[in-house]
Write a structure and sequence with these properties.
Number of helices: 13
Strand order of the largest sheet: 5-6-4-3-7-1-8-13-2-14
Shape: globular
Structural class: alpha/beta
CATH architecture: 3-Layer(aba) Sandwich
Distance between the termini: 67 Å
Order of helices and strands: HEHEHHEHHEHHEHEHEHHEEEEEEEH
Number of domains: 1
Number of strands: 14
CATH topology: Alkaline Phosphatase, subunit A
CATH class: Alpha Beta
Largest sheet: 10 strands, mixed
Length: 366
């Protein structure tokens, strides 16, 4: 009897002490997950709804974009034109404020604006940019710089060093190393503790720390000219490095050359770039499935080419893509969301609302 009493006594004492401890440990883990926020913003430059559907109709495989659970239509006008350019559209998405065509990171009165990337930095998150263009090009530049004119690439490159961005990967080596002012910003990046990669092979060497991947002198080659899996590899590398921050991260990934296929009225160029971008979308969604504190947003800054899909008279059951312009159009673009709080993205929204909804997902004050 005495032995049973002693055993029961120790069982009760064990439960009294261990149960609260276990409960606290689980609550702490839950709190860490709930407090962590990752946002992966993916911009297919020039990627209208017709562009997406032209690829869906041309390939037997389902696009990764179709894995997204929520959709919206986005109005893309700039402050001074119904038809935006990438600089103004990028600024609207990055800062929540419309500006004039050609301007980056400033309002219509040329007052500098704080981007989502900089707000994320200020709140202790890791940050990154990936693009298949020169990294100082309009869309990535909108998240890092404030300049009156998008052509001020030397100034844009300098402003990378005014931030604490953790990872940036794309083209643009010359903007940092072969400058009009003869300053070598590669040395400045090294002094700021960045690892420097100038090829895809070098990119794979780094598994921690800050990374500047300047893989091409200017823009990356077209996918049809041998770019390979640069965008997919860069996306995976950025996610590997940024996800080490337990507070979370903000990452913008641009499929830059979908737009250029539209400007060239080259449907093969456009579709191959969009398919390449969609592979990166798949990598992002796979990451979000394994990391449920992650929101993936896939959208465009504007539509390019005025693409229309009409019936093909020579090939029954196939559509004939026809371009109506070699410039941008004012057509709304699609937005596709997956993961944490994806349900916030629905209906018809303005491009400035993307910034506001991301801000609310993080729970940050502007």
């Amino acid at each position: 009897m005495t032995n049973r009493f002693i055993s029961l006594f120790f069982l009760i004492i064990t439960q009294l002490f261990l149960t609260p401890y276990t409960s606290f440990s689980q609550s702490k883990d839950d709190a860490e997950i709930n407090n962590r926020r990752n946002v992966i913003l993916m911009i297919g430059d020039g990627m209208g709804i017709s562009q997406i559907y032209s690829v869906m109709a041309a390939t037997p495989d389902k696009l990764n974009i179709t894995r997204c659970t929520n959709t919206a239509l986005v109005i893309t006008s700039s402050a001074n034109d119904d038809v935006t350019d990438s600089a103004a559209a990028g600024t609207a998405i990055a800062t929540g404020t419309k500006t004039n065509n050609g301007s980056i990171g400033v309002d219509s009165a040329n007052k500098p604006l704080e981007s989502m990337l900089k707000i994320a930095e200020r709140n202790g998150l890791s940050t990154g940019l990936v693009a298949t263009s020169d990294i100082t090009h309009a869309t990535p530049a909108s998240f890092i710089a404030s300049v009156q004119n998008r052509g001020m690439t030397d100034d844009i490159a300098k402003q990378f060093l005014d931030t604490d961005i953790d990872v940036f990967i794309g083209g643009g080596l010359n903007a940092f190393s072969k400058r009009k002012d003869s300053i070598n910003y590669i040395d400045s990046l090294r002094a700021a503790d960045y690892n420097i990669a100038t090829s895809l092979e070098e990119l794979e060497k780094y598994h921690s720390g800050k990374l500047a991947g300047l893989l091409y002198p200017e823009h990356a080659p077209k996918i049809i000219d041998g770019r390979g899996n640069m965008l997919g590899n860069a996306t995976s590398k950025a996610l590997e490095l940024l996800s080490k921050n337990e507070s979370g991260f903000f990452l913008m990934i641009e499929g830059s050359q979908i737009d250029w296929g539209g400007h060239d009225n080259d449907i093969n160029y456009l579709q191959t770039e969009l398919l390449d971008f969609d592979k990166a979308v798949g990598i992002a969604i796979d990451f979000a499935e394994k990391n449920p504190e992650t929101l993936v947003i896939v959208t465009a800054d504007h539509e390019t080419g005025g693409l229309t899909l009409i019936e093909s008279k020579t090939n029954k059951g196939k559509m004939n893509p026809v371009f109506s312009t070699d410039h941008h159009s004012g057509s709304p673009v699609g937005l596709f969301a997956f993961g944490k709080e994806a349900e916030k993205f629905n209906g018809i929204i303005d491009n400035t609302d993307i910034f506001k909804l991301i801000l609310s997902t993080y729970g940050f004050n502007k």
